[in-house]
Design brief:
By secondary structure, the protein is α+β, with helices and mostly antiparallel strands. It has two helices and ten strands; from the N terminus they run H-H-E-E-E-E-E-E-E-E-E-E. It is globular and about 45 Å long. The structure holds copper (II) ion (CU). Copper (II) ion binds next to loops.
């Protein structure tokens, strides 16, 4: 585009560069001529409060770790697995209604009390199977996540971020995240 412009109008580029230089010089003069920033506090106006990090939400269904980094994952080496520990920290049972992932390259299964609830994938065409697994107070379980680095082919090379979501009958969904750097 610029090459075409230049060949048609050889002077166009020089004019554009000149305009930028003039703008910068004028801008610099304006800034230099301006009085320094007002540091005096305006009476009656308090400084904006510092924005603190969001408080930790105490969850009933809690994850021991909700972020995991696989590090470098090779497409040639095949699928990788990570297990997240989750626990019902409440005083009454909680039901995991749905379990799903953010992408077709990722599946997640719930493993608890020697039972494995199918690996679930990304919801497709509005269909999201119900898992309905109840967890007793203090009961722990594992969410077994399998990531296939080759699922996207060569287009999948690079840094990836994926999520696994658990919906319960009691509180906002629990999200488990992972990252990886996919190499050929
Ligand atoms: Cu994917």
């Amino acid at each position: 585009m610029s090459a075409t412009l230049e060949s048609r109008f050889p002077a166009a580029r020089k004019v554009a560069v000149g305009a930028v230089v003039v703008a910068l010089v004028l801008g610099g003069l304006v800034v230099a001529a301006r009085p320094g920033p007002a540091t005096k506090a305006v009476p009656g106006v308090e400084a904006a409060p510092r924005i603190e990090a969001a408080p930790q939400v105490s969850r009933i269904l809690a994850a021991k770790e909700s972020n995991f980094d696989f590090g470098t994952v090779s497409m040639a080496a095949g699928k990788v697995t990570h297990r997240y520990w989750i626990k019902n920290t409440g005083g009454s049972p909680i039901t995991i209604r749905k379990l799903y992932t953010s992408c077709m390259c990722t599946t997640a299964a719930l493993v608890k009390a020697n039972r494995k609830y199918d690996p679930y994938g990304m919801p497709g065409h509005g269909f999201m199977p119900t898992i309905n697994a109840s967890m007793a107070p203090n009961e722990a379980a594992m969410v077994e996540v399998v990531f296939d680095p080759a699922a996207h082919g060569p287009a999948g090379i690079g840094r990836i971020d994926r999520f696994v979501t658990l919906q319960t009958d009691r509180e906002p969904p629990l999200e488990l995240a992972f990252t990886a750097l996919v190499t050929p």
